[in-house]
Amino acid sequence: MSRDDPAVSARSSSGAWTRSVRAQFPILVQTVNGHPLDYLDTAATAQKPECVIEAERQFYTRLNAGVHRGTHTLAMRSTLAYEKARARVAHLVGADGREGHEEIVITPGCTAALNLLATSIGYASLDCRQGRCRPDAASRDGRGDPARFALHPGDEIVVSQAEHHSVLLPFQELAARTGASLRWFGTDSEGRIRSDTADTVIARKTRIVAVTLVSNVTGAITDVAPIIERAHEVGALVVLDLCQAVPHMPIDVKKLGCDFAVWSGHKMYGPTGVGYLYGRRELLEALPPAWFGGEMVDLAYLDRPAVYEQPPLRFEAGTQPVAQAVANGVAAQWLENLDLEKIAAHERAITAELLKIADIPGIRVLGPLTADRRVATVSFEVEGVHPHDVGQYLDTLGIAVRTGHHCAQPIHRRFGVEASSRASAGVYTTVEEARRFVEAVKGIRPYFLGTRD
Ligand SMILES: Cc1ncc(COP(=O)(O)O)c(C=O)c1O
User: Alpha-carbon distance 100 to 175, whole Å?
Assistant: First the structure.
């Protein structure tokens, strides 16, 4: 291990790698309530490196124009930048980014990507039920059959107890509207999705399985291989939520073997307002559109059905989040250049520090207690103190954590609580910050309850 290794660098607390990464984040150089900002809310949204901020500024100062529309030079340049950014994001996750084979749909966010997918499947189901399941409704040349997405009463959609509401709710609504039923994976005592139960949870009637690769509450990494294998055995499609995974570890959607995947730009050090739907190309070709409007249509008539564009444009109705997508292409490149293996090693060392709160009397960590097979997202309960009070107390010390249910109520109920506090680190988090957080947590119960156990 060299001194430049991020794990060594994180342990030795002021390593060159950590320092050089952190120096790229202007927002971190400030004090909050008289203390240096200790930003431990990266799972909610990551801070942005200078290169991403500058890319968005450069887009507006030099390139701004609608994409895939005009023939003037600026419009062509912005289209080029937009498509280059799509290809960079495809490369980051191992998807196909070649022109004419694109597997990445650009959306306004992860939640938007999930709703787009669930609505498209709902439309395919409705069309088929009404006897108008037209292959041409999906694509110009009738490639692929949307009937393969159609859900029927008695079919099953499988999610998990650890899902973010943005996975749970669109698929719960889809089930309700199609007569399918919703089933779910339970979690073990550490909040890990019970993939060992795949053979029983996923059954012959299962058509869709939507699960998260990394929980935004427990930080646990799901063992998705048995889930995907079993889903494909019964002919079900697998949707992976990669929101909390893409910024923290190398991801290859082909190696994972999922059919669809979703994630957001703002959690991977990019801008807000942009997200992604990955779909295997032949699936995107067969999937009907769910949003309608400009640029997603090839031929529109008053007296007969429209003929839609090929993917990915078929799913990108209206003016796209161009500046955000372009800047997020820079974020994708930046992550690749930093090396996601190094990032993961750095964050493992930070996780080990954060988890030391589990040794403090009255603190319960909701999630795995060791740094392996998890990311640096640590939710915790402080016995006798409301999470909002925990958050405010830490804020007075300049430490930013998230409090509440983190848009994941079922997993909180599984732990017997309605809400928790959550510290989540990123590539810029230093070991000193993690230690400062642990010291601060030691003071919470004495402050509120006067106890010194
Ligand atoms: C695991 C997970 N999935 C989905 C989402 C939704 O992402 P967004 O709010 O960016 O659409 C989040 C956001 O917190 C998340 O953590």
Answer: 33
User: What's the pLDDT tens digit per position in 204-258?
Assistant: 999 999 999 999 999 999 999 999 999 999 999 999 999 999 999 999 999 999 9
Testing ligand 1's pocket by substitution, the residue of 116, 164, 167 carrying the most ligand atoms inside 8 A of its CB is 164
**CB distance 164 to ligand 1 below 6 Å:** yes
Choosing from 243, 260, 274, 379 the residue with most ligand 1 atoms within 8 A of its CB, the one to mutate for a pocket test is 243
Report d(CA 358, CA 185) in Å as an integer.
26
Task: Give the total residue count for the chain.
Answer: 453
Give the distance (Å) from ligand 1 centre to CA of residue 271. Answer: 14
The number of helix segments (H) and strand segments (E) in the chain equals 17, 17
**Which domains, from first to last, does the chain contain?**
6-49+339-449 (3.90.1150.10), 64-336 (3.40.640.10)
Confidence of residue 141 (pLDDT cuts 50, 70, 90): very low
pLDDT per position as a tens digit, 311-342: 999 999 999 999 999 999 999 999 999 999 99
Mean pLDDT of the 278-284 span:
96
Average pLDDT rounded to a whole number, residues 424-430: 97
pTM of the model: 0.95
Q: CA 437, CA 444: separation in Å to the nearest integer?
A: 11
Question: How many angstroms separate the alpha carbon of residue 249 from the centre of ligand 1?
Answer: 17
Instruction: List all residues 6 or more positions away from 222 whose beta carbon is below 8 Å from its beta carbon.
Output: 160, 162, 192, 193, 195, 211, 212, 213, 214, 215
Would the CB of 405 count as within 6 Å of ligand 1? no
Residue 147 binned pLDDT confidence (cut-offs 50, 70, 90): confident
For ligand 1, atom 9, name the residue with the nearest CA.
111
Give 140's pLDDT tier (boundaries 50, 70, 90). Answer: very low
